[in-house]
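Teaching assistant's notes for section 4

Start the section by putting this record on the projector. Ask students to predict, before seeing the second block, whether Methyltransferase domain-containing protein will look compact or extended. Collect guesses on the board.
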Amino acid sequence: MTEDSPGDGRGDGPGGGARRERPAGDWRELNRENWDDRVRVHAASAFYDLPGFRAGASTLRPFERAELGEVAGRRLLHLQCHMGQDTLSWARLGAEVTGLDFSAPAIAQARALARDTGLADRSRFVVGDVYEAQDALPGESFDIVYTGLGALVWLPELPRWARIVAGLLAPGGVLYLAEFHPLSDLLGEDGRSVEVDYFAEEPRREDYPHTYTDGPPLEKTRHVEFPHSLGEVVTSLARAGLRIEFLHEHPETLFPRYPVLRRTPEGTYVFPPGHPRVPLMFSLRAAKPAAG
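Reveal the predicted structure now:
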């Protein structure tokens, strides 16, 4: 698969959907090194709790299981699967799963986790970049393509991503996406004031010594993130030929991103009563037309 040009997305202006992308030249290698380094920290962290997962815990959110529905016997591809916990959680529900990630250490950890949990017979993990997924999985198609929380910010070109997703889906198959809402990136630490431009297009180059979990500092601290509006996500998928079945916005998130957030009995975090709210996560389901 050849690289699309940075300007491949047809621009509609701010917030209009598939805007012109400007990838940072070395973004892929910086991000791969950063994520390779994160694996050693994440695997030992309380945040990921691999012992608990081995004992039978699921990492899927209740709304994900409800919105995607029955997966038993269906072929599911998880793009950007990291260490495979979400992937294997779908396998525990009966799906035949494939996880793909560009980090070889993450895939090694996922394969070990599959063996440890007795799920190796219904799971497969492949090292590969999202933009080269069709080369990594030649001629294959899936009933479900799943992308989980925190994935899209690492991709510079959503129109290209959407076309790849459409190409990997079997006729009648569905994309199910659960993500952090882009509005949640705009607020300051008080959870009330807007401090970031929603329509910013420039990649964010970061140099930060820690990952988002507990654990020791990273050695590879630099990475590049790419902001995307909600309109860009939806428009990219629609232009790839997928039909949007729903877009749900959720008032909770997975961690206390702002000090004002309060933990619920279910273990998520929400704004307290009386505090102005913005959506913190969203979920989307899009279908590929059936053959004929």
